[in-house]
Write a structure and sequence with these properties.
The protein is of the alpha/beta class. The chain contains 14 helices and ten strands.
Length: about 375
Amino acid sequence: MRLWSLPGPSHFLDQAVAALRDGCSLLLPVPAHGLNGLRKALEDRLHFDGWNVAPVVEDDGGDPVEQMFSALGLDDGNQRRTVALLRQRLDPGQVVLVDRVLPCSWSAWKQFIGEYEIASRSIGMCERPLIVLFTEGVALLEMPQTAVALRALAWNNVVGELDVLLFVTSLLRNGTRPGYELRLVRRMISRLALWDLAVAAYLIERNPEDLFHPAVVLNDALRELGMPAGLDRTWQSGGLQCFDDVQCAHPFLIVREGDAQQELTMRLWAAQATEVLPALELQRRNLVRLMRGLVATPIDVAGIRYCDLNDMEIGPLSYVAHRQGLSDNIQRTAEKLKRLRNKLAHLDALDAIDVFDEKLYQHSTTDD
């Protein structure tokens, strides 16, 4: 599945096009690492929608006005090249894409886009020639405020868990594991890789059991894929992103720093809790069905009277199964469910044997 067909990135392109339709030039800041192809994706989208897209201008570090006139082959009429003259020479409704504006040249482009926004205000929304600047590695705090004819749309909080789940699922559909295990594996990959689809693709190729040792498997990924140059705990480097509204650090940073706070383990736990706790509830209900007719109600457990076994949590069910000497199958099942539930309740990640070898995904319907 391509990045730009995922819901988050696709919506991002929709927002960019909507801003252009509103007559606003655009600043599209992206981190130095973690995203490729945004300019091409937007250019393709604009062509498909019938926009008049000028040839792409590549930032060469010179004066922005001079670069624009030269790259676009505009006639200056022997006049001094200015932002106002540039706006006059561009076609109405035309869109100019300026690619890879880096921190070293951002100051000049920031001044240019501010002047261009002012020069555009006197033109009707549908007639304005528009400029899109793709900045790379420029801090978000450096972005100017939204103005009448200018908007900034940062690549932050764009890729979320749903996107990664769809991406992983599209590559995992090989039929080698039952549905429950497939759901758990894709959830663990999504929580460990976060927005980095290259890391997700690497984890897909590993044995699912490796995912239960996140520090080890991500350290292997780091060696295989390499640490991006300059990656640190900043958005502009690609080391920090909002992922479903929560600011998270790239997994490679956590591995490199030693993960003293056990952040990777907590991400693994969150993935497991999302998938395993509902499975435990289904197993609890199945356990109740097995115990009906074998346990008389009402029944008192730890000072609480239960008139229906379905009102009992896994712990009390396990206690009753052992106290009344029910079959070995029921007792083992109840004990297993209680142990897994307790581990998750205490924020402990499960081992592979907990969820694979014990076949949590299977729902017995008969007693031994």
